[in-house]
Predict the 3D structure of the following.
Amino acid sequence: MNVEVTRAVGTALMEEAARCHPEECCGLLLGEGGRVDRAVPAANVAAQRTRHFEIDPAALLAAHRSARGGGPQVLGYFHSHPASQPVPSAVDCEHSTGDLRIWAIIGEGRVAFWRDSGNGFSPMTCKIVEEERAESEADLRETSAGTMRVAEI
């Protein structure tokens, strides 16, 4: 499974994780089809923000309302693991719903993309694209195992 992510989104994810450290950052991934064009930070309203995240319900509702009105679609969510790898934790897997949304997890200087399969998560392959849609395969860079490293952003 592939996802296209703009370079600006990759940069925004890394910056938001750094800004929120040592707490977990979180937010929404917006775009169309399999292309993430925007990462919108949201308040982490979890009780223990250094170990968990909970996207502010008001931000989530506003994004879905905007999508219904013709705005960008909510393709998924992002959060950081300030002290571990960018792989779904046991708690993340407990929250897997099977809605097939994209999860971006930031950790250890990388961003990894996962698909919520309902029984946990499946890794996604990430293609980094410029802001304008790439015209040819030469304009795309694919990363293995769906991870973006800091140097690639």
